[in-house]
Amino acid sequence: MQFLAYILIYPFLWLISILPFRLLYAFSDFIFILIYRVFKYRKRVVKQNLRLVYPRKIVRGDTRNYRKILPSFM
């Protein structure tokens, strides 16, 4: 089973590893949009943590500041 996973995942990881940095950043931005915006993975937890760490920068209900702060952490 592990060998099968290795055969399936290794070529994909190898292709990602040879990408130039600009394409790698574009790929990571796409994955961010896919996971955070489409699937809404842990969105509430992320907002709560940012609110605890930056209480002055983030006002409740103001999502524009999340969009400015969050990409710097991803």
Question: How would you describe this structure to a colleague?
Answer:
By secondary structure, the protein is an all-alpha fold. It has a domain at 24-74. The protein is 74% helix and 0% strand. The chain contains four helices and no strands. It has helices at residues 2-17, 21-38, 43-53, 64-73. The relative contact order is 0.08.
What fraction strand?
Answer: under 5%
Total number of beta strands: 0
Task: Give a quick account of the main beta sheet: strands, pairing sense, barrel closure.
Answer: none
Helix count, DSSP H or I runs of 4 or more residues: 4
Amount of helix: over 70%
Shape: elongated
Task: From the alpha carbons, calculate the radius of gyration and give it in angstroms.
Answer: 17 Å
Tell me the span between the first and last alpha carbons: 32 Å
Order of secondary-structure elements: HHHH
By secondary-structure content and strand pairing, the structural class works out as mainly alpha
Poorly predicted tracts of residues: none
Mean pLDDT: 80
